[in-house]
Design goal:
Elements (H helix, E strand, L loop, with lengths): L2 E6 L7 H12 L5 E5 L7 H4 L9 H5 L12 E3 L2 E4 L5 H6 L4 H10 L4 E5 L7 H9 L2 E6 L3 H16 L3 E10 L5 H12 L3 E6 L2 H9 L3 H4 L4 H12 L7 H10 L7
Parallel strand pairs: 1-5, 1-6, 2-4, 2-5, 6-7, 7-8
Antiparallel strand pairs: 3-4
Bound molecules: adenosine-5'-diphosphate and magnesium ion.
Length: 257
């Protein structure tokens, strides 16, 4: 195990799931990558990865009585190990977020890079857990000042639990947008690097409709190039899998939310 990243943002719909799978596929060229849909209340990674008919999902692992084994919730897709989450509200309500620590710890012991597709809000235990557990966050933003300010809140929260920032990913950037000025502000406020600016792209929407990650559906699209550039800038750190697993197991889940 090398490193765990939470892909986060202050709002839904910014492109976290798109980014999680795109970064995952780019990193899978070099590393063993495991992608987990840790957005357990608003899961949608299954639709992006063609796993909407998955039998066993993360929800089953978070509900003790279902007695599911971790291996059954791991699907080998697009060169990665993918752990989708179900969309049932009843399962979300029955799920014990604390169990996520053990699931992630177990998965961490047998992979190089963990990517946690994370919830947008900070309002509950299940929402903050991925950010608390990860080594670093990737902040996905639209290139606007309100989006920056939401992202800063997420970062502040992450830092208060010792999670660093890997960088900022600007998504859905239109040609007329002045991303440089925003990126300059982001550099100043986030103190982290801009990983890439991902253009608004029809191919991203088409990939979602096809149930495939962008890099599988339209590998030559400029948005796919930008995600590969971002992945190269992540500069994955070396770490001992057992240490990381141990850290996850013993992580204190905040009660302050
Ligand atoms: P989140 O996980 O943050 O809620 P998604 O990754 O599911 O966001 O993206 C939300 C919607 O926006 C999806 O329909 C997706 O196809 C679309 N989308 C994301 N990024 C782009 C982009 N760069 N260009 C066009 N559409 C995009
Ligand atoms: Mg999502």
């Amino acid at each position: 195990m090398v490193e765990a990243f939470a892909v986060a943002s202050g709002k839904g719909g910014t492109g976290k799931t798109t980014s999680t799978l795109a970064l995952g596929m780019a990193l899978a060229e070099e590393y063993d990558v495991t992608v987990i849909d840790a957005d357990t209340g608003m899961a949608n990674l299954l639709f992006h990865a063609g796993l909407d008919d998955a039998d066993v999902t993360l929800h089953d692992l978070l509900i003790e009585e279902r007695d599911a084994s971790i291996d059954d919730a791991v699907y080998e897709r697009f060169g990665m190990s993918v752990v989708p989450c179900g969309t049932s509200l009843a399962s979300f309500e029955a799920a014990d977020p604390e169990r996520l620590r053990d699931v992630v710890a177990e998965l961490a012991s047998d992979t190089d890079v963990l990517l946690l597709d994370s919830p947008a809000a900070l309002g509950s235990k299940s929402a903050v857990l991925p950010i608390v557990l990860a080594d670093r966050i990737v902040v996905v933003l639209q290139p606007t000042v309100p989006s920056l300010s939401d992202g800063l809140k997420v970062q502040e929260y992450a830092h208060s639990y010792g999670t660093d920032t890997a960088g900022v990913l600007f998504n859905r950037v239109r040609p007329d947008e002045d991303v440089d000025t925003i990126a300059e502000q982001a550099g100043r406020y986030f103190g982290g690097q801009t990983l890439a600016s991902i253009p608004e792209s029809d191919a991203v929407r088409a990939a979602r409709r096809a149930g495939e990650p962008l890099l599988a559906h339209a590998s030559d699209d400029p948005a796919a190039d930008a995600f590969r550039e971002a992945a190269a800038r992540l500069d994955v750190r070396d770490g001992d899998g057992r240490d990381v697993a141990q850290r996850f197991k013993s992580a204190v889940v905040p009660d302050r939310v």
